[in-house]
Write a structure and sequence with these properties.
- Helices cover about 40% and strands about 20% of the residues.
- It is built from 9 helices and 8 strands.
- The longest helix is centred in the C-terminal third of the chain and has 20 residues, at about 235-250.
- The chain has helices at about 10-15, 20-30, 35-40, 55-65, 90-100, 140-155, 175-185, 215-225, 235-250, and strands at about 70, 80-85, 105-110, 115-120, 155-160, 165-170, 190-195, 205-215.
Length: about 260
Amino acid sequence: MYWTENLSPYKIGDIFGCSFSTITNRMREFGIKFKNHSLARQKYPRSNFSDDILEKSYMFGFRVGDLSVYKTNPRSEFIVVRCHTTTVDQVKVLEKMFGKYGRVTVSLSGDNNFHINCFLNDSFTFLLGKYPDMSQFTGAEQIYAFIAGYSDAEGYFGINQGKARFKIDSYDEVVMKWIGDNLARLGIRNIVKIISICRDKRNFGAKLYRLNVNYGADLLKLIDNIKKYCLHKTRINQMRICRKNIVKRIENGSI
């Protein structure tokens, strides 16, 4: 009742028809730990991360692509994950990703400006830092799950000049090159190049990178390996359209 259902000793005392002090005495007697002030004020239960490496890989990818993660103060036992988006599909991704672990709040300002806050416990400290350690993801499935997360946040699948294409535009040079190198290692041809230099004073001189996968066979392999991890409805629909385009071109002998 105290730890799982998040009931206070006062409430537990009411249920059993005894005093607050009787409950706390029994807790001490049986070695039940008391919550600190921060945990005691917590209204909504928070669960520990599953430690599933593929789920972690996806979270890392999405986090690097589009999430702000921080503690309200250095001693806090809670992690706040924040995101701003104009699409309902992205709101649903956050709810799917973190809703089972903690409270997810969504507020709307103006037309389709969603502000999402996810309140998690400190088992999610691995998401802190601008560039979480990506070197831990070495297996093919881990890499694909990471790319699925990053693609859900930043990627685009579409048809250009009758051919399916995939692209990601980002100022994150480290991440873009990591994805490009790992795709090449997995046998998926891709191009990473600089397409512009930022002139905005807030990010003046930053290089905007684009990663492309244009060859049909390579894009088909990418889609078939990341679609099982993707949570973004729009991205999943884009992949379905691109896959159909590639299969049709293969059948017509143009690939």
